[in-house]
Structure formats: C-alpha cells, structure tokens
Structure to design on (225 residues):
C-alpha cells in the first residue's frame, strides 16, 4: 500500500491515517508531496494520477485508491480486523464513529483559527483568539467535555481504553493544543502528553520539525524569516 500525504508540519488530514497505520504496525510506503493547491503544480499533478479528489491523504492498495480520512480508516478496519482499529463493542463502536464524524464536519473555529503547525509556538495567538473568538471557546469546551466523558466511562489511557481510530482522528487537535497553548483540564493535558509520547507520533513530529519548509498559505500568523 502507498499513502500519499502532505507536509507533516501542516497537513492535519495526512496525520490521521499515517499515525493510525504506523501505530497499528500496518506496512505502507509513504509518498510525501509538498502542499500546493495551484493547478498544474507537482502536488496536483501527482494526485491526479491516483485520485479525483486532488487532496491528501490518499491510500492506494494494489492500484485501488481510497481518499478521505474516514473512508481510509474504515477500509483499514475492514482489511485488518485483527488490529482492532475500532472498539469491539457495538455501542462503543457507534460512539467512536459519532465522535469521528463530529470532528470530520465540525469545529470550524478551531480549524480555521488554529491551523496545525507543529514546529511553531504561538501562545500569544492562542490567548488572543480565546479572548476574541467565542467560536473557538465553544469548540475547545466541546472537545474537552467529549474527551473527559470518554475517560470517565473507559478509564483511559486513550479515548476508548486502547488506541483506536478516534485517537488518530483527534491527533491534529492535540498538536493545536500544544502549538497555541490552549488551556485544558488536567485529564486532557495528560492525554495530550500520552499522544505525543507515542513512538509513531514522535516520529511524525520530529520529521515535521525537520522539514524547514515555510508555506505562506498555511501561516496566518508568521512571516518567513
């Protein structure tokens, strides 16, 4: 299998299946592409060969392309049932899918105001946004309440006890909490630390910091030195 991804520093959507597969021990070849949304760019040209979406991530398995993070996650869960990528119990699995779907289509204030930027440190931006943007306050409160409820029900250490698709799905949020120093309860802060401590996550973060590739369209708060 091949997984097409964008810049590790910026591409939150790419992080999800990459982390899931690395943590689960699912073998794949990584195909990194420098993010660019201009027609005719190497990014768009390479993706046009494998998927009509023109976006990352894309998983290609024996020539068959799967795009969109949820579709990739479901494909992997069916292809590798022994990996237990979803919770085993029916209701827990339904809850897990609900949380992923809510993340997939929601939290626009968090996404727009706090784009993933792993190597940046922007606490002053986070403080300003929390002061001026009630939508971000709402999104952060919803996410922390969601996570706290799961820990109350499962006891942790991950959202459904063991690491699942849901944890991979919220990994970009974990990076945002660190980059923008967003205030969270102690139980959530401990979860952030646990995600960052995963060997696969450490690998992604190290490689993101080593890219040294400043993309202005993903940098609303900084200028290139």
């Amino acid at each position: 299998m091949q997984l097409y991804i964008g810049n590790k520093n910026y591409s939150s959507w790419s992080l999800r299946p990459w982390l899931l597969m690395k943590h689960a021990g699912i073998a794949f070849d990584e195909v990194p592409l420098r993010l660019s949304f201009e027609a005719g760019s190497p990014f768009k040209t390479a993706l046009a060969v494998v998927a009509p979406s023109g976006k990352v991530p894309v998983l290609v398995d024996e020539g068959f392309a799967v795009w969109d993070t949820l579709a990739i996650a479901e494909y992997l869960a069916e292809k590798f049932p022994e990996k237990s990528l979803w919770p085993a119990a029916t209701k827990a699995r339904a809850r897990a899918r609900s949380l992923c779907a809510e993340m997939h289509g929601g939290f626009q204030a968090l996404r727009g105001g706090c784009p993933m930027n792993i190597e940046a440190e922007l606490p002053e931006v986070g403080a300003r946004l929390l002061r001026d943007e009630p939508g971000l306050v709402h999104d952060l409160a919803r996410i922390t309440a969601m996570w706290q409820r799961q820990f109350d029900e499962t006891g942790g250490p991950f959202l459904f006890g063991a690491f699942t698709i849901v944890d991979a799905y919220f990994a970009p949020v974990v990076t945002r909490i660190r980059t923008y120093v967003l205030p969270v309860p102690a139980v959530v802060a401990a979860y952030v630390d646990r995600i960052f401590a995963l060997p696969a996550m450490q690998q992604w973060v190290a490689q993101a910091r080593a890219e040294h590739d400043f993309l202005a369209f993903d940098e609303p708060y900084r200028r290139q030195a």
